[in-house]
TrEMBL record:
Domain of life: Bacteria
Pfam families membership: Transthyretin
Record's keyword terms, sorted: Hydrolase, Purine metabolism
Domain Transthyretin/hydroxyisourate hydrolase: 4-107
Subunit details: Homotetramer.
Main function: Catalyzes the hydrolysis of 5-hydroxyisourate (HIU) to 2-oxo-4-hydroxy-4-carboxy-5-ureidoimidazoline (OHCU).
Gene Ontology terms for molecular function: hydroxyisourate hydrolase activity
The keyword Membrane is annotated on this UniProt entry: no
Binding site residues for substrate: 7, 45, 105
Protein name: 5-hydroxyisourate hydrolase
Ubl conjugation among keywords: no
Length: 108
């Protein structure tokens, strides 16, 4: 299983958001570099996003929400920046999405 997983829920429609492109980026002195990419499945999940271990550091998930919400989306992208302190512990970072708001939390 990937160290980082995510789940996108469409809170306006009460269902999983299918087909959302997601990138996992690692931060560093040289800027951001993409570690892995994927798309949400029929259940709105990306289960295989990246390796099963990562170095401790700052990472971000970049969600191409315009791909799901359409070209006129108020938020064409949602970026969630987070810290990995334990490079062997699983990190689940969900996104709750609607046309004019989004939120996140540390999942399990």
């Amino acid at each position: 299983m990937s160290l980082v997983t995510t789940h996108v829920l469409d809170t306006a429609n009460g269902r999983p958001a299918q087909g959302v492109p997601v990138a996992l980026d690692a931060g560093g002195e040289g800027g951001w570099r993409t570690v892995a990419t994927g798309h949400t499945d029929d259940d709105g999940r990306v289960r295989d996003l990246g390796p099963d271990s990562l170095a401790p550091g700052v990472y971000r998930l970049v969600f191409d929400t315009a791909n799901y919400l359409g070209p006129e989306a108020f938020f064409p992208e949602a970026t969630i920046c987070f810290r990995i302190a334990d490079g062997a512990a699983h990190h689940h970072v969900p996104l709750l999405l609607s046309p004019f708001a989004y939120s996140t939390y540390r999942g399990s």
